[in-house]
Amino acid sequence: MARLDGKIALISGGTTGIGAETARLFQSEGAKVIVTGSSERSVEAAKAAMPGIEALVSDAGDVAATKALIDHVNAKHGRIDVLFVNAGIAKFAPIAMVDEAFYDSQFNVNVKGAFFLLKHAIPVIPDGGVIILTASVSGAGGGLGGGTIYGSTKAALRSFGRTFARELTPRGIRVNTISPGPIITPILDKGGFTPAQKESFIETVKTRIPLGRTGTAAEVAAAALYLAADATYTTGAELFVDGGLIDL
Length: 248
Known about the structure:
Layout: E1 8-11, H1 17-28, E2 32-37, H2 40-49, E3 54-57, H3 63-77, E4 82-85, H4 100-121, E5 130-134, H5 148-168, E6 174-180, H6 195-206, H7 217-230, E7 238-241
Parallel strand pairs: 1-2, 1-4, 2-3, 4-5, 5-6, 6-7
C-alpha cells in the first residue's frame, strides 16, 4: 500500500519548486493533493503540469484568503491529514537598503501567513495528523549577507515548529520542520538577483557546503515524505536538508 494512501494533503506554495516536487511525490504515494499558488498564471501552469492535483489561487499573506482556502478544502474534502506550510518569499538586500515595504512583504507571507494558515487549519486536521513547515538554514545562522529579513522570518518558522508541536501533542498531531540549505528553485529568480549575481551566489555558496553542491527540490520532497509518513515517533524536530552546511 502506498504510504499516503487515502490522505488529504494541502501544500501551500505548491505550484513550483519544492512544493510542486512534494505534491508529485505525495500524489505518487496515494494522497489527494491540493496546492496553492499566488497567481492565476502559476496555478494554471500547475494544473497543466500536474494532472490530478487540485491547484488553487490563494495569497499566502492575506489572512482572509487563508481562511477561505481552509473553508474550501474542508467543505470539499472534509479534513486535512497532512498540511505542508511551504509558501514563502525570499528577497535579499543589505541592511542599509531595507525599507518598511521590504520588511513587511516577507513577514506578511512567511510569518503572519504561516501562522494564520496553521491557526485556521488545525481545527480540520484530525487527531494524529501531520504538519510540516519549510524553514531554512538562513534562520539557523546559515545565511549569507543580505538575508537579514529573510533569515528572521525563517527563524520564526523554526520557533513555530517547536511551539505548535508542544501545543498539539494532546491531539497526537505531529509538527516538524524542514530547513533546506541552498536549493536551486524558481524562488531565486524572484529574490532581486541579476543573472550574474545569481550565478555568483550559487558558486559562492557551494564553497561553504561540505558535500560541495547545492541540493534539489526532489531531495527536500523526500524529507517531507519521511516526516509525513514514516516519522511516526517524531514531533517538534527540525530536519536539515543542507549538505552538512549547519552541522559540519
